[in-house]
Design brief:
Length: 311
């Protein structure tokens, strides 16, 4: 009887000790210090014959980011209004492969998730918060406003995933428009030289915000965008001509103006101009639209091609 009683007491003394050790191990989660790094990704739209650059190195572009913390039990989709600011429109600097905020912060503690919104160029964004997202204010496309880009919220992020690096897939906020020219027939005997191409009645100014949904608020001001000035000989095959211009996405209802010269048998140039050709097209963000102009002694015909995606 005494031996049995001794074994029961010994077992009771061991079990609480083991149980207590398990609880402590579960509560003490490993929480290493990890530098917060970013990897902006931009895929440039290129024309045939060119080599695409998908590395994210954008040359003259600069990147910025805003970030917020949430309790790891919350998600961005249901609790973004409760998110606490972590980075407020901070510029990213490249150091080796990745990009780091100027303040060089570490990831927040394990008990928090991180949400980030990126944008480019850095100086173009008027603000970036958790209510309107990225805001590009007073955008004017009468001159080149730059390659305006933003990211959707990169949410519910943890430093235990992806090696502490946040990928920022940059989405174009603008669209692009370009032109090609060609002759109507390879048997056309008259030589033709295009001198200028422009679009009139284009909405030039607006304001962009990425949240709750990416959208533009356009001003009623319209104007002209010039695509080409020079002296371009028209051949039968289509050729790219002039500049590719960035334009605010819109329901385009524009007038095309083309000035060109027809070379007479005497070798004199006879100037011609068309300004009554309508171009109506819904222009969506992130797409490149190319219009081919068939130019002949009879006038100008517009051939619309299917848009390609910028990104």
């Amino acid at each position: 009887m005494k031996k049995t009683f001794y074994r029961i007491l010994l077992t009771a003394a061991i079990f609480p000790t083991v149980g207590s050790g398990c609880v402590n191990e579960e509560r003490e989660h490993h929480d290493p210090v990890v530098p917060l790094a970013f990897e902006p990704v931009m895929h440039a739209q290129v024309r045939a014959g060119e080599t695409p650059d998908n590395t994210g190195d954008t040359g003259n572009n600069s990147f910025g980011v805003s970030a917020w913390t949430l309790d790891r039990t919350e998600t961005w989709s249901t609790g973004s209004e409760n998110a606490e600011p972590f980075l407020d429109r901070e510029k990213l600097l490249r150091d080796g492969v990745f990009w780091y905020p100027e303040s060089k912060p570490d990831w927040p503690p394990y008990s928090y998730n991180l949400a980030c919104i990126g944008f480019a160029p850095f100086d173009a964004a008027a603000r970036c918060d958790n209510s309107q997202g990225v805001v590009f204010d007073d955008v004017d496309t009468s001159t080149d406003p730059g390659d305006l880009r933003y990211t959707l919220p990169q949410a519910n992020l943890s430093k235990n995933r992806n090696g502490g690096v946040v990928t920022l897939p940059m989405i174009p906020a603008l669209c692009e428009v370009s032109f090609r020219v060609r002759g109507v027939s390879e048997y056309e005997t008259a030589r033709i030289y295009v001198r200028s191409i422009s679009l009139e009645n284009v909405k030039l100014k607006g304001r962009f915000h990425s949240l709750p949904n990416p959208s533009w608020d356009l001003q009623n001001l319209t104007g002209e965008i010039n695509f080409f000035e020079g002296d371009w000989p028209v051949g039968y095959s289509s050729q790219d001509i002039g500049e590719t211009r960035r334009i605010i996405p819109q329901d385009l209802d524009a007038s095309l103006r083309v000035a060109y010269d027809v070379v007479a048998p005497s070798q004199d140039r006879i100037p011609e101009e068309v300004s009554d050709v309508e171009i109506k097209r819904t222009l969506s963000a992130g797409h490149q639209y190319t219009f081919t102009l068939a130019v002949s002694t009879s006038g100008v015909e517009v051939i619309q091609e299917n848009p390609s995606q910028i990104d």
